[in-house]
Amino acid sequence: MSTVQNNQQNQFEDNIVLKALSLSPEPTAIYSDENMIIRFANIGMLRLWGKEESVIGMPLLDAIPELADQPFLAILQGVWRSGESYAVEGAPAELIHNGTRRIGFYDYEYRAICDEHGKTWCILNTAREVTSEKAYLQQVREKEKNEDLLKAEMSATLAELYVTNRDLMASMRLLSESREHVRTIIEQAPVGIAMLKGPRHIIEIANPAILHIWGRSENEVLGKPHELARPELAGQPVYNWLDQVYATGKRKTNKEFTVNLYHQGGAREAIVNSIYQPIFSSTGDVTGVLVILEEITEQVIERRKNEKDQHMLALAIDAGNLATFYYEPATNLFAGNHLLHTWFGLEPVDHIDLSKALAVIVDEDRHRVIDAIEHSLGTESDGNYAIEYQIKSTYDVTPRLIQARGRVFYDHMGSALSLNGTLRDITEQKKDEQRKDAFIGMVSHELKTPLTSLKAYLQLMQRGILGSDGYAPQNLLDKSLRQVNNMTVMINGFLDISRLDSGKMVLEKSYVDLKMLLEDLHEEVVHTIHSHQVVFDITENMVLYADREKISQVIHNLIGNAVKYSPVGSRIDLYYKRIDRHTVVISVRDEGMGIGIDDQDKIFERYYRVQNIKMGSIAGFGIGLYLCKEIVELHDGEIAVKSDGEKGATFSITLPIE
Ligand code: ADP
Asked: Per the database record, which ranges form the PAS domain (predicted)?
């Protein structure tokens, strides 16, 4: 073959080769220069880069800027300078394809093509994407790894299973032991326990305590539906509760529930606390009901009795208007009921320092009380505390007389724990006693006066008869009779009081002509009262159904008082008026000293007498108005007084008329 032919053949072959190369899908490129100017890049390489043909002729990084932070340029430059080729398998490269970055794995080679001096002329880059292979390999490797892991896991699981199995066996043993344990606990439990299975509440377990409460034996109930085993509960709510718990899965708790139970062939009432607890299966379904039952009949009865006692005690304390106190020497704390706080004017806190209570006691009594408390708490004492003293709180106008009674409570060592007791306000009682004493003194005195006179007249008569010294016996007899009369009136008054007290004051009621009654009274007054001007205004006729004697006594008494408490010569009026079809008001008006507002209510109390300067030495027993009031009230009537406290008083009695 000629040289030309050879060249032609070579040229042809070069072109063919280049053409073939440029169309080859096997990525190939040629770079030269330090900047790696792309001299050639075939379709395969352009596809790999994701670029167009226009990149040919550009420096590598200008053409593919995303390679800037990757090692390729440095490697290429190393090859360029050293003339030593570089090849790698499965190396990563990040390229942009259709706008998305993606990492691929490549086998590639940078082959240095050198001239005869060994200087690099160009670099031939061939590459092959191995991403899918790589992924496959990775998968394979991962699978192998997973299999290894699986194997490791399996052997670990096996080991674990072995251990678990061993534990399980131990647990089973424990379980059967603890089952036995639970059974024993249930058997010996002090509360009743029963286990009911299924919707018909078949009694599976019933411990002795619950059998005792139910009044049933094991044979009677075990294995039977609850309703059949315990028919005595018919009409009571228990069956419903069990059904509800079973249906809803909600626990039911009852406190202090009264139930009729079976008892020795009959029935008995019991008070119980009960819990109906649903039992769930592992899938969450209700499979039965656990019944826990505690009988509290005795405790509740005892407690109710205590509550009743407490209640009665509280009632008695209230009714007796008693204050209670509690003193604890160790802490010096003093406590008591509401009344105690009120009397002592203490703030409504639970515990008060004793000194605060002592401060309320009047000065002259305080030390006596302290001594008495100390004495009762001391070792010499019999534990009793009894004393009377006066207190005056900031709210009291006058001191209050208190009667204290208490007892000391001791601990097991015999040391005083507390002093407990009651206080009674005896101010009024004391006043009453004083009034009674004064009354008895006055009664004796008042009875003595006519008695002395009577005695004197009798003596005179005796002497007159014996010595005829001029005294007319008739005259003396009249005087004596008047004294006897006075005494009779007085004694009748006292007798009335005692009759009232013993409930023996009996009314002898009849139809009474009021007009006639007043006319008779007027007649009597005209003859007996000369010191005052007594005016009767007798008008309408009315009929009372009353004890004539007693009503006369009342009006008499009112006129007597009007005379007693008015100046001589003043006027006294008696008048009456029908206020409706059924009622008449009879009034006695005077122009006397009047009655202060504060006294107006009290004058109707027994032994009460107004204490003021105007009363002077006017004697009396303080029982007249009390008797009037009682008599009027026995007639279903009322008595009242009106007075401005300065001058004059009007007493009115309201009585029912026929
Ligand atoms: P006595 O008159 O014996 O004291 P009473 O029960 O009749 O007892 O009266 C009670 C008190 O009422 C008297 O002490 C007196 O202070 C007062 N009182 C009664 N009637 C009158 C009256 N008409 N005017 C003023 N005070 C009176």
From this structure: 178-232
Using CA atoms of 54, 60, 64, 66 in order, give the dihedral in degrees to the nearest 10: -170
276-300 pLDDT, tens digit each: 999 999 899 999 999 999 999 999 9
Whose alpha carbon is nearest atom 25 of ligand 1? Answer: 594
- Ligand 1 contact via 639 beta carbon (within 6 Å): no
DSSP codes, 472-509: -HHHHHHHHHHHHHHHHHHHHHHHHHHHHHTT------
Asked whether 419 lines ligand 1 (CB < 6 A), one says no
Average pLDDT score over residue span 434-460: 80
Last residue of a domain, one of 129, 160, 177: 129
CATH number of the domain that residue 623 is part of: 3.30.565.10
pLDDT value of residue 467? 46
Domain final residue pick, 106, 129, 152 = 129
For the Cβ of 595 lying below 6 angstroms from any atom of ligand 1, the answer is yes
pLDDT for res 3: 45
pLDDT reported for residue 5:
46
Q: How many domains does the chain have?
A: 5
* Residue 2 banded pLDDT, cuts 50, 70, 90: very low
- 352 CB near ligand 1 (under 6 Å): no
Q: Per-residue pLDDT tens for 110-143? A: 999 988 888 899 999 999 888 776 676 676 677 7
- Does the beta carbon of 622 sit less than 6 angstroms from any atom of ligand 1? yes
Residues 646 and 553 in one domain: yes
Cα 504 to ligand 1 centre (Å): 25
Half-sphere exposure of 600 (CA within 13 A, CB side): 18
